[in-house]
Amino acid sequence: MTDFLDPIDYETGTAIRTFNIIETSAHPEGYDVLLNIDLDSGYDLENVRMTISFEDMEAYETNDIHEAVKYALGFFDK
């Protein structure tokens, strides 16, 4: 039986097609974000929790949590 606590290294994965932010909540270090993600493979990830720190937002040069999530997921303007 596979031990799911051991990390598995893959060379590549599938792309994120779209994402929807369901809820955001602020805390002293940043934001907790609940989102749904549609993968290019046809699968969906539901109720995914992401934490974005204020330091992350500063690095992304934004104060908008929605923009920070977009950047964290790899959606950059060309």
The succession of helices and strands, N to C, reads EEEHH
How would you write the strand order of the largest sheet? 1-2-3
> What is the 3D form?
globular
Q: Kindly report the average pLDDT value.
A: 89
**Ends distance:** 44 Å
Q: Number of helix segments?
A: 2
How would you sum up this structure, described in words?
With 78 residues, this protein is of the alpha+beta class. 18% of the residues lie in helices and 41% in strands. The protein has helices spanning 54-59, 65-72; strands at 16-27, 30-39, 44-53. The chain has a 3-stranded antiparallel beta sheet. The longest helix has 8 residues, at 65-72.
Brief overview:
The protein has 78 residues and is of the alpha+beta class. It has helices at residues 54-59, 65-72; strands at residues 16-27, 30-39, 44-53.
Properties at a glance:
2 helices; 18% helix; alpha+beta; globular
What is the element layout, followed by pairings?
Layout: E1 16-27, E2 30-39, E3 44-53, H1 54-59, H2 65-72
Antiparallel strand pairs: 1-2, 2-3
